[in-house]
Write a structure and sequence with these properties.
- With 286 residues, this protein is α+β, with helices and mostly antiparallel strands.
- It folds into two domains: 121 residues, Glutaredoxin (3-Layer(aba) Sandwich), CATH 3.40.30.10; 128 residues, Serine Threonine Protein Phosphatase 5, Tetratricopeptide repeat (Alpha Horseshoe).
- It has 13 helices and four strands.
- Helix 7 packs across helix 9 and helix 8 crosses helix 9.
- The protein is elongated and about 65 Å long.
- The protein starts with a helix and ends with a helix.
Length: 286
C-alpha cells in the first residue's frame, strides 16, 4: 500500500471518528455528469478535452452498479476530470435516441469515449469495475491525444493527406465503415508526396472497404496500386490476400486461385498463408 493511500485511509478514519454521533454520512464524491450531449461536445471543444458518454436506462441494474461503485471511486473521479462526462438515456428524448443509434448502442451499459468532434476513440460494452476503469481512462486519453492532433491538423487544412489517412485508419479500427471509406478516399487522392508505406496502407484498407461494398473494380485498382508502390513491402501478402478475396467475391475464381497461389508459394510463413490455403481448397472444390 502506498504512503498516499495510507494517508487517505487515516484521514477518512479520523473524519469518521470526529463526526458527531447520529450525524448523516456525507455523500460520496462522484463524477459530475452533463445531461445534454450537444452541450457536452461544446464544452469539450472549448476545453480541449475528450468525452465520456455513459449510455443507460432505468431498468439497467448494471448501470446502477456503475453509479454505485465505479463512478464514485476516488481514482476514477480524479481521472475523469480529464474528460467531459455526459449521460445519455437510451429511452429518453428523441435526441438521446439519435445519439444512441449513431454510436451503435445495442446493449447496456455501454460507455463510449469520444473526441471533441464526436469521433469514437474506444468503448466498453458492459460493466467495468473501479479496479480496472482508471487504466481504461488512461488508455482513452492516450488515444485521444493522437486523434485530437489529427483532427486539429485537418481543421487547419481539410486536405491534409496524413491526417486524413490516420483518421481513416482509426475509423476503420473502430468499425465506422462509411466514415473510414470517406476519409481514406480523400487521403488517396492527395497523398502523392507521402511515404510509400503510408500510401500502401491507405490503399490496402480502402481496397478492403471497397470490396465489402462490392465496388470490385475500385478494390482491384487500389490493391494493384499498393502492390506497385513497393513490391518488397512486408504487407505484400496481406495486399495479395485482399486482392484474392476481392476476386473470390467478384466471381473471378481463376484470378483468385492465381493470387492465392502466389501467397502460398512466395510467403509460406506469412500469417495469411494458411487463410490463402483454406481459400484455395474451397475454390478447388467448386
Amino acid at each position: 500500500m502506498t504512503s498516499e493511500m495510507v494517508l487517505s485511509l487515516l484521514l477518512a478514519t479520523g473524519a469518521r471518528q470526529a463526526q458527531p454521533a447520529g450525524a448523516a454520512t456525507p455523500a460520496p464524491v462522484s463524477i459530475r455528469w452533463e445531461k445534454n450531449f450537444d452541450e457536452a461536445l461544446r464544452k469539450a471543444r472549448h476545453a480541449g478535452k475528450p468525452v465520456i458518454v455513459d449510455f443507460w436506462a432505468d431498468w439497467c441494474s448494471w448501470c446502477e452498479r456503475l453509479d454505485e461503485t465505479t463512478y464514485v471511486d476516488p481514482w476514477v473521479v480524479r481521472r475523469a476530470q480529464e474528460f467531459v462526462p455526459v449521460k445519455v438515456n437510451t429511452e429518453g428524448s428523441r435526441r438521446e435516441l439519435e445519439v444512441a443509434r449513431r454510436y451503435q448502442v445495442i446493449s447496456l451499459p455501454t460507455i463510449v469515449f469520444l473526441s471533441p468532434e464526436g469521433r469514437q476513440l474506444g468503448r466498453i460494452d458492459g460493466y467495468q469495475g473501479p479496479g480496472h476503469f482508471p487504466h481504461t481512462l488512461d488508455a482513452a486519453l492516450t488515444v485521444a491525444k493522437r486523434v485530437m492532433s489529427w483532427e486539429d491538423a485537418l481543421a487547419r487544412n481539410p486536405d491534409d493527406p496524413r491526417a486524413l489517412a490516420l483518421l481513416g485508419a482509426h475509423s476503420y479500427e473502430q468499425m465506422y465503415v462509411e466514415e473510414a471509406r470517406d476519409l481514406l478516399r480523400r487521403a488517396v487522392l492527395r497523398d502523392s508526396e507521402e511515404p510509400g508505406d503510408d500510401r500502401r496502407r491507405s490503399r490496402m484498407l480502402l481496397a478492403y472497404l471497397e470490396s465489402l461494398s462490392r465496388n470490385f473494380p475500385a478494390a482491384e485498382k487500389l490493391a494493384k496500386e499498393a502492390l506497385a508502390l513497393d513490391p518488397n513491402g512486408e504487407d505484400e501478402p496481406k495486399l495479395l490476400f485482399v486482392l484474392g478475396r476481392t476476386y473470390v467475391s467478384w466471381g473471378r475464381n481463376e484470378d483468385a486461385v492465381a493470387t492465392m497461389e502466389i501467397i502460398v508459394r512466395q510467403y509460406p510463413q506469412s500469417p495469411v498463408a494458411q487463410k490463402a490455403r483454406e481459400t484455395l481448397s474451397g475454390l478447388k472444390l467448386r
